[in-house]
């Protein structure tokens, strides 16, 4: 019984290889972005688009000479959208790369964001959860290192209700309308239920909440319910496979698709294309239009994609919703670094310094024009108390080929939401024993 | 020569019944424990604690939990993650709602509640077995996940349904740093492994093995299947429940019900397949393999010139390799990594001679 | 009342879709005693290969033929690399091997074709049909028709051909059939290939419903309770089981959902299957195992 199994040889080999791992060349003037990306698994479509856009924008900035001469560098770690893999990636990458300090983490996953929230604060590394994340982290006095940029979940539903109001001819017309919300059976899907009930009470519409169990590949009973109910509008808070199935099932029961409004995770090409013709006329919100006409995308096309360095495996996805979200995320990250450099000097910065940059982000139309992103990014102004900044969305409609914008920016009712957010943040602070910062004294 | 048994004679029944009869084993174990409790906290860094050692320890405990049920008592289960979830959420609510309850006590009570739930879903095992039993455990998986998301009471009405761990205070000492969380987990895991090792050598453990090997025969020789199977579910549930609490409190610091989904159950099952069904040590080896293998592979491909294989393809490759390895283990080494360790011992015993 | 029938019929038709996946299980279980968890991965692999070929400009028929051929190759490989070395091992071990197999196939499918989401149009309109005020889905009717055809074809194969005869012999007693000169490996490969074909059909129909993407491999979870109710070894049972599960989960979701909370479709089939098991431990049409010591 002494034969050596191939298995053991393999293990031995692997052990030797890790032992031989050593640090590479030392980099002096670089700022590092740890990317907890996901390119396989059920949500790969979102991950490849988003991180493709993000990386391409970083390449584009480097092609233009970096941020004040500081080059941007990054490395990827596959999370597969799985929480503990995301944590492992976070711990592996947070220390920077070859001496280049990490600027911020962008996991694009609610679960990973939650799991690294405390760690980010302890490690003084900003955690960016663009368009998603923990709603109460909008309150920067309790969550100094967390930034749900542009749009948190509460703002999202509020903006949708406001839009339905304008479609019906005024907010007062919402009274006695029926609105059904079809949500994903997960914490993400349930997050807005409480706020929707408040909104329903205020505006006087009749709200029906329908849950679709994860992963959502069977929705017949929910749609039969909708057929019986005959709501005026259906809000789709879906994720992944649930979206195309919802549209197909809607067709099956004969519900008009142009009265379904998708939320921020039901708004991409990947959500509608699998539904084929059933998706034609579907409306969804977006914080950033798709398309390639913006100067910044043209710039990326010229200096990155046409040079054969584009990150997308499928070049046809250039300018799609997820890709552009990645670009928007890149713009916001790089702008934060640029802003922080103005304060701390044009050198690689620590996470703590970059955090200052995020907190003082102030993108007005003039600045967006200069970046070539006017219309792509909404005007955004952050502060110590407000880590969201925007809270506005536009509405787009799918014509079978592409998304067409059908509205201007629609603002969420942020004044109404703010007390709810503050109460929730205060409860968190109490549970965790955090004493909130005093925002009036922050510089 | 390293493993010489010669001269180590038992002079009393107590010595004969020791868990580790060989002096080398005992010395090695103490050295290992000393290393884990004293040297590792000094040598390790945050990355090793929070990204490798903690999941490794917690998963080995979960593996042991499932191994007691599947590897020893022969009841296949795909509901491990559900019992972990019950343990985690029970411990969280106990901490939240019972003021002044010590942390370790709430871990243990969480385990007890998980054990009760496991017994409930184990009841059908008296009438059905094999693949049919899988369905009962899968039912546990889906029902628990649904209940925990459906009733927000379990998550203290958190809008996102996510629980965050309270400060890890034991007897006034704060274990919240990565090093502290490692030590806390290590202590719990070592105690439970010691119990588990003794359990499988006890009368109950032997009954389980009899049930596993042929339950009809076992009942003929007078083993009460009813009791043996339900105890297997209960004790397995307890271990998994404690593992779930550690996963939520000590490792991640936060958890949502979805964090304990079916793929976690598969993960635990793979640990015991790779580590070795019906082995205590195998759980640690299997967990080490599951935790380290992807990281090794990622590092390995990181050495290749950039862009040769992107991280998405790497993950697919990893998945393929994983599947292939599971099949390979089942074909070549059904007793898993634990068996490799046995072989190593055999060789060390006669080394440097060949025979 | 009309609404109730609408729910019932919708559920029955959805159940047929579950049966399609379950039939693949039954075939393999009957012939080789393997509970093949990789059936879901095979559905994914078939659908992904088919749709990728279609997108690369292959005509429908060719794409179908090539995919079928690759399913056959896959079946041969599985027989050679997995089943043969594991011959005579405990069923639980074989089951775990198919778990590994499903990882392998999922990884390979995505490695080969990428993880993008694809749309699949089979050219069947899904406008609702209104019959006496009741809503019926054309697509689901088509799926039901396909399943019926498949079942008839399979039962012809089993009952009217020589191959079918040996298949039944193997299912009945592998040792005896070996003794009379039936080549077990060949039968296994054949059965896996047929299961691959069933997987392809299921993949096309499910793919047209959901879009072709990773989640397709999750349909296996819906097929499990179907199998439990119908019994592992009966194709007719798979159909009946599918109908029961489909109807029950829809009715539960609509009439029970408002009382105890919605989103119960995931576990209702399992609890139902469990209740069935307590009454009939071998399913409706399964064979009762006789135990000897």
Automatic annotation (TrEMBL), chain A:
CDD domains: PBP1_ABC_ligand_binding-like
Coiled coil: none
Record domain Leucine-binding protein: where: 39-400
Superkingdom of source: Bacteria
InterPro entries: Leu-bd, Peripla_BP_I
Signal sequence annotation: 1-27
A Pfam family assignment: Peripla_BP_6
UniProt keyword list: Signal
Family: Belongs to the leucine-binding protein family.
Descriptive protein name: ABC transporter substrate-binding protein
Organism: Pseudomonas veronii
UniProtKB/TrEMBL annotation, chain B:
Keyword Transmembrane (UniProt): yes
Alphabetically ordered keywords of this record: Cell membrane, Membrane, Transmembrane, Transmembrane helix
Membrane topology: Multi-pass membrane protein
Domain of life: Bacteria
One Gene Ontology cellular component: plasma membrane
A Pfam family assignment: BPD_transp_2
Annotated compartments: Cell inner membrane
Membrane-crossing segments per the record: 27-43, 49-69, 76-94, 100-123, 130-148, 182-200, 230-252, 264-282, 289-309, 321-341
Residue ranges of coiled coil: none
An example molecular function term from Gene Ontology annotations: branched-chain amino acid transmembrane transporter activity
Keyword Secreted on entry: no
PANTHER family hit by this protein: ABC TRANSPORTER PERMEASE PROTEIN, HIGH-AFFINITY BRANCHED-CHAIN AMINO ACID TRANSPORT SYSTEM PERMEASE
Protein name: Branched-chain amino acid ABC transporter permease
Native source species: Pseudomonas veronii
